[in-house]
Specification:
The protein has two domains: 2-68, no CATH class; 74-176, Restriction Endonuclease (3-Layer(aba) Sandwich), CATH 3.40.91.80. Helices cover 46% and strands 16% of the residues. The chain has seven helices and six strands, in the order ααααββαβαβββα. Strands 1-2-3-4-5-6 form a six-stranded mixed β-sheet. The longest helix has 18 residues, at 51-68.
Length: 186
């Protein structure tokens, strides 16, 4: 998995980390183009087919884009013995105002999101529209599913979005919820 991170950050370095940060800070819409370019360049260099590698790539890229866009987030938190990958904007908001928080899960095995795990996640984030799952392919569930691949007319979650839209959607969500979390500018 170290190779995935090295390749990802090599691509980011070639494009220009500061350029990406500057562009996204000025225009969040550009995040979609950068995500698409980075994923395309990554696919040209590395053939990854398994869910674990895709999950690792998406998680690392999402962490970078959140930082580049100065979007507030908490990463790798455990609540009630449930591991959460990303919380937007923070744990306090999720605990006290779950309607103003997003939980993003990036399973390393898409089949690992069992009905039991979905039920546990809903205890932490009762607002299903604020539970987002990132997967390689769209698949069945009651949450918002951000997918790397297209839908291809399969029956999947009630809402399937392109992974490239995730930063724009997070930014829109934070604007709609009037989030005032302090943002660090790099």
């Amino acid at each position: 998995m170290e190779d995935i991170g090295n390749t990802l950050y090599s691509i980011i370095g070639e494009i220009g980390k500061e350029k990406i940060q500057s562009d996204i800070t000025l225009n969040m819409e550009l995040s979609k183009q950068y995500i698409q370019v980075i994923l395309a360049q990554f696919n040209n260099r590395v053939d990854i087919a398994n869910d674990e590698s895709i999950g690792t790539l998406c998680e690392a890229l999402l962490h970078f884009m959140l930082t580049a866009g100065t979007l507030p987030s908490v990463r790798k938190v455990t609540i009630d013995k449930i591991n959460l990958d990303i919380i937007i904007p923070n744990l306090h908001t999720l605990s006290n105002f779950p309607e103003k928080a997003i939980v993003i899960q990036i399973p390393k095995d898409a089949k690992s999101i069992t009905k039991h795990e979905q039920k546990n996640l809903r205890k932490i984030q009762p607002n299903i529209k604020n539970l987002w799952i990132v997967t390689k392919e769209p698949f069945l569930g009651d949450y918002i599913n951000y997918s790397i691949e297209s839908v291809n007319n399969r029956k999947t979650s009630s809402v399937v979005r392109n992974f490239g839209d995730i930063i724009i959607d997070i930014d829109t969500f934070l604007e709609q919820t009037k989030d005032k979390t302090f943002r660090f500018f790099h």
